[in-house]
Amino acid sequence: MVVFYSDEQANSSQIEMDAADSSSTLRRTSARIKSLEAQKEKRSTPAPAPATPMPAKTDRKVKRRKVEKSPQLDDDLAAADVSDAVASVSNDVTTSTSAAAGKGVHAQVTETLRAFNKHYLQHIQEEENRVGRLEADRKRSTEKGSKSKSKKEDTAEENAKKSAARRPDLKAISQMMKTGTVLNPEKRIGSVPGVDVGHQFFSRAEMVVVGFHQHWLNGIDYIGKTAVSGRKAQKELNLAQYNLPITISIVLSGQYEDDLDNSDDVIYTGQGGNNLLGDKRQISDQKLERGNLGLKHCMEQSLPVRVVRGHKCPNSYVGKVYTYDGLYKVVKYWAEKGVSGFTVYKFRLKRLEGQPPLTTKEVYFTRGRIPQSLSEIRGLVCEDITGGLENIHIPVTNLVDDPPISPLGSGFVYIKDMKYSNNISVPTIAPTGCNCQGSCMDSRLCACAKLNGGDFPYVQRDGGIMAFPYCVADFCPTAAEISEVWHLIAQWLVYMAGLWLTAIDLLVEPKSLVFECGPSCKCGPKCVNRTGQNGCRFRLEIFRTPKKGWGVRSWDYIPSGAPICEYIGLLRRTAELNHAADNSYVFDIDCLQTMKGMDGRESRLRDVSLPSHLEKIVEEVSESVPFCIDAAQTGNVARFINHSCQPNLFVQCMLSTHHDIKQAKVMFVAADNIPPLKELTYDYGYALDSVIGPDGKTQQMACYCGANECRKRLF
Hints:
Blueprint: H1 7-10, H2 33-42, E1 89-90, H3 105-143, H4 151-162, H5 168-179, E2 187-188, E3 200-201, H6 204-209, E4 220-223, H7 234-237, E5 246-252, E6 260-262, E7 265-269, H8 290-301, E8 305-312, E9 320-337, E10 343-351, H9 360-364, E11 380-382, E12 396-397, E13 413-414, E14 419-420, H10 447-451, E15 458-461, H11 485-500, E16 504-507, E17 514-515, E18 540-544, E19 550-554, E20 563-566, E21 570-573, E22 586-588, H12 591-596, H13 612-619, E23 627-630, E24 634-635, E25 642-643, E26 649-655, E27 665-670, E28 681-682
Parallel strand pairs: 1-2, 5-8, 12-18, 13-24, 14-21, 17-26, 25-28
Antiparallel strand pairs: 3-9, 4-5, 6-7, 7-10, 8-9, 9-10, 11-12, 15-16, 18-19, 20-27, 21-23, 22-23, 26-27
């Protein structure tokens, strides 16, 4: 949803009540592209009308955000080695704002991280497929009653299981280095373009691929003397002015028992001599060399150092999250005997003035900000908008309006499952189903995997949602509830056990269509290929924004590829819409048009294998979109998700209970690793000057998404 208001409208309690406004703009749909163009040609004045005061609502997007596809890459990966010997440096000590042609620096960082996450999940998928095939072969061999294996055969099978079992994040780094898709491969002093103070990385590997900290293991990244004789001339690098080595970034992650971090003033323990087993204990003396010497040289030459802080994050695949806290200067260093009796070097760093305030504690110590009971929620206007329909309660807060209003005040009714108009029946094109038992594992035999191009669309990661769910906040008993305390605790334990024991299933990459297992499949409900049917698994909150109406954010960390929610509402025929009325919450099911690349969409038909009964439908498809989802009066949390020019969600069409592409499910999936309390957004996909009002004139609406590369206009 995108709801934009003027300041006066934002303070009025009637905003949500007056939905049917005569100024509502006409929703742009694929079926109406040609007719709209014809209206433009008939207008006597070709210039678009000037921007008028913003209507109370805007129209639903029609085409999904284009998701760029990366070229097919070689799977033969080299070892992950980020060598400072061949790295060069930018001699600009301050922030560099240069960007590649056509793309801003922030967009480049986002695209690079998305490419990394895609490769990372692909390598997890490769390993899952390999192990799944081995397990399936073993079971078939057992069922056939094969003879006892020899010791040599057992050894060969064990070696096969261990082979290629390399860390997927390092394989992703290696792949991107090999193809030249890493960002900022040349080391630089000072800030890195596109990485602002407060930026969060969800692994050290992410820092490597954007050129922020080019050591995936070491806590100090530095430029060594060998950089002078690297691939560029000394004069071009301008390194002769520095006494090398010089340290360019450090990561504070509690790897040493002597670390002391007071945010603006840091006592940092140098590198070397610690036990790599993870107990932080020193086992030998440190030396004033490499990164340690680089910190000393930074102090002597007044060179800034980038400082990153690592904090525990159970849902991150490395168990930590890393936040960039800005530039620091080294003001002092000394050697002393550490806690374990060995010599350690200490460096005192002070944060440079004039930088944005620290956000590490604000963002990643959110346990103190996230309420544990209803009484702690500021601006609460609805305890649970779902009325208990979802697995997890979704509260609604409003700190903007006075008096505060609720979306339920406009007659909106929350529903969990799709409703159908009277003249629409549930599709009868039923899938045949797979014969997998328990959970689909062997993509060579699974019929549903074959529909998805030969692989399962999801990968499974252990962990589940480890945060304390809001819905158990009611389980904190009052005096009146004390008699029920043990019953409530039992409910809480059952619920938490379900979350802890359930793995996180992630979509590897955007596809034109995802075929999930359906009612005819033999696999169970925990099958990885039923991920989109499991409902919401994250603690979401609907909140009021100053200029965009209602928005949605998560209290939990959401990993890239995680399905968030389905767009639910009333399924209607597009031709029956009243185009003079408000269609702000109408979502076109344009899966077929996207598969064929119509109306400017990027075709993604190549990544699925359609069954014969669907191939004819795809071939005969026209520009019309026969069905749409109307969530104006009935819908779910998805209707409140706002637009952004740099979104963190993308739209994915899915099929499971039926195979009617014209009525495919619309699912929102995380495009990035999304930190807690970050608003969830997707691109509504409007082209500028593409929306025509009932009067035949081009409509304009400002965009308030706040993205670094905002287009300033929604349409």
